Amino acid sequence: MTVSPRSPGRPVSLRRQLILKGLLPTTVAALAMAGTLGVLHIRAADAEVHAKARIQAARIAAAMADATNDDAVSDALSRALLRTAPTQQAILHRDLAGDIAVDSGRRLAPDSQIHTWTSTDDGELETVSDASALRERQLAGFVMTLLLCGGIVWLFAIARRGLEQDIVAPMENVRARIDRFLHPRGAQVPADDDVLSAIDALIDELVDLRTRHDAAMADALRQRLQDIARHTRFIEQVGDHFRQPLQALALFVAGMQPGDDLRQRAVLGQMRSSLTRLNELLDGLLEMARFDAGAVEPAPVDVIASDLYVRGRAAIEADAARLGVDVRWRGGRLPLHVDPVLFGELLHKLVSSAVLSTPHGRVLVAVRRRGGAIRLEVRDNGMGLDPGAQARVFEDFTRLPGHPGYGLALAVARRIVDTMSGRIGVRSSPGRGTLFWAEFDGAAVLPAASHPAELHWHPAW
C-alpha cells in the first residue's frame, strides 16, 4: 500500500496515485522540454545576432584595409556603415594616434547595443550594432514558452478529469458494488481509502466466498447423490416387496377354476381387473418416485423418429383397435438427438392418453422442427377439456374424462419432459379435441433448411 508523504500512515487515494505516478511525471517532463526549447530558442537567436554582428564587423574592417590616411579611413568606415544597416557606429582604436569614430547618427538605447571587437592592422575596430531585433525574438521565445507550458498544464487538467471520469469513478463504483454485495449490512470501506487495495481485499474475500461456496456445493452434491442412492434402493425394495405378493396373487387367481357358477366368474373377473389396476398403479407410483428422486439421467443419441414410432405404434395398437381409433403418424424421417427410452415413453403416454380420450375418433402424431428445437405434437378430435381441467391435467392423480386409469400417465409425462430439460403443454377446446405438445431445445440434428415442410393442422382434427 502506498503511503502519502504529507500524511504518514494514511493510504493514498487512487486519484492521487494516478496523478503522482502517471500524469505528474509526464507533465513535469513536458514542462521541462518546453522550458529547454524556449532557452535553446533564445540562445540560438542571441548567437545568430552576435554572429551577424561579427560578420558585419569583418566586412567593415575589410573595407578600410586599403586606406592610407585618416581621411581615407573615415571615408571607408562611412561607406561601410551605409552598407551594413544594423551597425550604427564604428570606432578604430589606435595605439599611436587618436581614435577614429564614424557614427550613422542614429542613437540606440544602452540595452539595445551589441559591441563587437575586431583586430585590424591599424588597431582594434569596435562596432556597435542594433540589438532591438534580438530583444524582440527573445520576448517572442519567452511568450512562446509560456504558451506552451500553459497548454501542457491545460492538457494535464483535461487528462486528470478524464482519468477521474473513465478510471477512478468506474473503479470506485466497482469497489462500492462489490462491497455492498459482500457487506449488505456491514461497515463499508471509507471513500478516501486506497481503491486498488480495497478492490484487492474485496477480490480476496470473493475468492474465499467462492471457495466456501464450491465446498458447500460439493457437499450438497455428495449429499444429493447419497439421497438419490438411498431413494433408489428404497424404491427397489418397495417394488420388490409389493410386486412379489401381487404376482403370487395373480398366479393364484389365474389358477382358479370357477366352473359354471356365473357369480364366481364375475368375482374372478373383478379380482383379475383389480390386480391389473394395482400393478398399473404400482408401476406408475414407482416410476414417479424414480423421477422425483433424480435417479433417471437422460442419455441422448441420434435416432430417427420412425424408429420411435414403431415402438409407440406397437404399444397402443391393441387399444386403438379395440376403441376404433385411427392413429396417423407424421414426420417419421426427421432425425432427433434425444434419449430414445425417455422419448419413447413420453410418446407412449401422450398417444395412449389421446387414444383413450377419443373412441371411434382420430389421433394425429407428428414431430416437427422449430429452428434447433424439436416439437412433439399429439392431437385428437375427442371431447376436449375445459379450462379448469387443462390447468390440472399434469398434476398427480388427475384423470381425464373417460379414462379408466388413476391419472398418473400425464404426471409421469411431465416428469419425463422436465428430466429432458424440455417444456410441455396442452391446448384444448370442449368438443373440438385436445393437443398435447412437448418441445426440446437443441434436439434437432439437420440444418433448418433441410427439414420437411411443417404440418398444418386443420379444424377437422
From TrEMBL:
Domain Histidine kinase: 237-444
Superkingdom of this protein's organism: Bacteria
EC identifiers of the protein: 2.7.13.3
Gene3D superfamilies on file: 1.10.287.130, Histidine kinase-like ATPase, C-terminal domain
Record InterPro entries: BphY/WalK/GraS-like (IPR050351), HATPase_C_sf (IPR036890), HATPase_dom (IPR003594), His_kinase_dom (IPR005467), HisK_dim/P_dom (IPR003661), HisK_dim/P_sf (IPR036097), Sig_transdc_His_kin-like_C (IPR004358)
Listed PROSITE patterns: HIS_KIN (PS50109)
Protein name: histidine kinase
